[in-house]
Amino acid sequence: MDIIEKVEQRLSLYASKPTVLSRKSILSQFFLHAGEKEDYTEDDAISFLSWAKNHYKGTSINHVYASLRWFYRQV
Predict the structure, then answer these.
(1) Structural domain boundaries in the chain
(2) Using CA atoms, how far apart are residues 28 and 34, in angstroms rounded to an integer?
């Protein structure tokens, strides 16, 4: 099972909560931005956060950061 499948499986346990739906959306954008790979580095996260500052209008950057922090703890 690859990293993306593990994360999706973990998120599906709590899929009805709005925070999880938002986190899932943020992480799907992260995977589109960084691409699918075996290891995600800090550079991937920094690049995505820079991109997110300009592209996420309704979501606070703190929530984007928290979602990335959660993801990196899972892997």
Answers:
(1) 3-74
(2) 10
